[in-house]
Amino acid sequence: MFKLKIPFNKPSFAGNELKYIKQAVLSGKISGDGMFNKKCTQLLEKKFKANSIFLTPSGTSALEIPALLLNLRSEDEVIAPSFTFTSSVNAFVLRGAKPIFVDIRTDTLNIDENKIEAAITTRTKAIYCTHYAGVSCEMDKILKIARKHKLFIIEDAAHGVNAKYKNQYLGTIGDFGVYSFHETKNFNCGEGGALVVNKPKFVERTEIIREKGTNRSQFFRGEVDKYTWYDVGSSYLLSEVLAAYLYGQLEKMEQITVKRRKIYNFYIDALSNLESRGVFKLPTIPEHCTPNYHLFYLLLNSQKERNRVMDEMKKKGILTVFHYLPLHTSPMGRRFGYKKGQFPITEMVSERLLRLPLYNSLTRNQMESITKSLRKVL
Ligand SMILES: *Cc1c(COP(=O)(O)O)cnc(C)c1O
């Protein structure tokens, strides 16, 4: 085995995390919804101008809550891209609903808003859209379609914390938004997530679902004198220990974003001449999207070439990776009746995409070593 000089990802450390964890532990409350949960949600709600935000144990669990709030069930259909992480689709498949896949755009790799309407039937209830790489989907068009057909929009903004579409933060545009604080994301606490509830009418039931189906949140606020079982629910709170770590990251959100922008722009500057020679395609960011520089990818000219570059880079001690295997051709996708060839752009991108390391602690020397190696390999 080669000893990796540059790993693909390293969880970042912003400075105050251990201090805050110590405070949380010494405060005597380490379960959910304590002081650090409050600090995190207040910071996020204020910065993103969001109605209500709830921290959850993961982005995956946050995606499940809207499926419960909307009472999705087996006759229902939900529109989603096939080019996404399993969590965006499992969220409603767990309730028995069927995924109706739609292909992606060739530029942003987001769901193609012009192909959504053809996928709508009388059973369609919602659209789960993923903002890939922290670059927004075309929300004006998607909102218009949703209004016309009375559908709910759930934004999977796991990649998109602190990114914007026009002047709105991702996650605050649809009915619900989801963030992930997994260690591979821009701001992290190991495992963690958040749900943005943009319509006040869903807030009360979200509190109940999140507290195992009880009105314990109201009880803790002193609004009722006992709490009891009201609804379906599960355990969707984030421990204070993790919220303390997360606060150490969120308070440095702008510095972290600046750092990531520098890495992203370094790659763009160092690799543009190769792009103009047609060796690969660099990411596209539309004018009206403000990204958060979540990830950096190249689109090579073939699967064979992508795999060759990945292998050669690994020999040089640099780990580059690809994703996503299309959901529609996966064993689970096939069980829903999908076949290879149905979403050609998703299939093509999945074969040709290569991600370069992009994390907060990547050094200038490492970046130079990555682009120099790439130039040699290509
Ligand atoms: C990371 C990710 C998730 C899930 O987040 P977890 O916090 O790991 O559960 C969901 N959707 C997308 C697009 C992701 O990248």
Give a brief rundown of this model.
38% of the residues lie in helices and 14% in strands.
Taken from the alpha-carbon principal axes, the silhouette is globular
Number of helices: 13
Strand order of the largest sheet: 1-9-8-5-4-2-3
| Largest sheet properties | 7 strands, mixed
How much helix is in the residues? 25-40%
Order of helices and strands: HHEHEHEEHEEEEEHHHHEEEHHHEH
Rg result: 21 Å
Which cofactors or ions or other ligands sit in this model?
A: pyridoxal-5'-phosphate
Secondary-structure class: alpha/beta
Question: How far is the N terminus from the C terminus?
Answer: 23 Å
Q: Strand fraction band? A: 5-15%
Q: In total, how many beta strands?
A: 13
Q: What are the low-pLDDT stretches, counting only 5+ consecutive residues below 50?
A: none
Please state the average pLDDT score: 97
Outline the structure in words.
Strand 6 (164-165) and strand 7 form a beta hairpin. Helix 3 (59-69) packs parallel to helix 4. The mean pLDDT is 97. The longest helix has 24 residues, at 253-276. Helix content is 38%, strand content 14%. It has a seven-stranded mixed beta sheet with strand order 1-9-8-5-4-2-3, with helices on both faces. With 378 residues, the chain is α/β, with parallel strands linked by helices. The structure holds pyridoxal-5'-phosphate. Pyridoxal-5'-phosphate is lined by residues 58-60, 84-85, 87-88, 130, 156, 158-159, 180, 182, 193.
